[in-house]
Amino acid sequence: MLKTNTMEAEQQKSRVQRNRLQLLDSAAPQFESLAESREQYVRALEDTIDLLKRDHTLASHNNVAIRTSMNELMAMQQLSNAICTARDPETIVGTLIHLTRQVIPVSESNVFLFDKATNKYTPLSKKTSDRFNAEAKKHVEAGVVDWVMAEQRTVIFPDIESMGGGGGKQIIVIVPLIMRNETVGMYLIRSPKPHEDVSNQEIQLLTVLANQAVIGLENWRTFEKLNVANKELIASQAQIRHVAKLAAIGELASGIVHEIKNPIQILLMHMELVHMGKPLPNWTYLFSQQIKRLSEITGRLMNFSRSVAEEIKMTEISVNDAIVETLAIVQHEYEGNKIEIVQNLFNDLPRITGNANCLQQVFLNLLINARDAMPEGGTISITTESSGYHVVVKIADSGSGIEKKNMDKIFLPFFTTKGEGNGTGLGLSICRKIVTEHKGEIKVESDAARGTTFSIFLPAKRSTSCS
What we know:
Number of strands: 12
Structural class: alpha+beta
Order of helices and strands: HHEEHHEHEEHHHEHEEHEEHEE
Largest sheet: 5 strands, antiparallel
């Protein structure tokens, strides 16, 4: 019985082994396939990782290249703006050369402008060598420049002059300067870069830079013209203002002559008495006073009527003093025409930064207008006061006033309500111009029943002391 059980156990074990072998035999191809797939998967994964690494490296290089290109473009843009805003030829050429070196190396270069009057090319910068300028002249004489001008195309050719100089072969680049489809000059460059290494992109960049230079040259020329025109305008304004001053003196001529005539007559009368041996007591003192009076009259007139400077010099002045000096010119005549002048000058009036002679012209013009508004006589009151940060001057008359329809016109140049041949029409416009130059303001109020009041507001000079 035991033997039988043992045999059955052996048989069972044998069957299990056979089943395992059969299972392994049947599963072997699948295991082999699985192993092979796994190896392929690993290899594919490794290839993918390598590809990702290469893409990452390439992307990093591209990002660096993009950033570098953007930085270069920004630098080029900034320098291009510098060309367009330059105000002198040397800056334009210097900036252009600096820009050019961002594209190709430069041994020497300059801009040459074409002068139609002389049919010659003139170097814009004075910093290039005479030899380089002479070479440019040779290229003109050889007809190369004429071809560039006609075709409006950049050309590159070997620099013959440098071949035997031991400095290595160099090239000459001629870039036409074009403004409104017209060639106005050339940009001449000597470069050590081989001809075959100059790309089309670099040629296009040089063309763009040359066009930027043309814009800069046009701006510079326009600026120069405007500067000349501005100087001529300032000179004309000074002449007009001087003419207006002389015209104001002319309107007061009769009163001024009378004021000068009085001391002269006194002097002549006493001189006759001296010659006759009948001098009056203290006659030397009397002579001295009358001569001093004449000197003061002529001095005020000379001071007021002197030429107007193109650039007005501002200093610290007293407005009250300028008013008193002006009144001294008109006082005598106005008293003779039954015009009373009332002064209300504030004693502690702050000083201002201004030009006394110019302000006297303002005060004189307003006083003349006040006189003309009162042909039968009247009252002129002059008041000064301190108001906040301003010194205020008010000149009021008791005349007929200004018609409402003319209130908006009185400060316009050449506008006048006086008859033909009376007045220039420049007085009030010049008054406003002068007050504006003093950073002030002039206002007018007028009423037929009460007359006209001009108010002038001038910035007071503020004290820097601490109490």
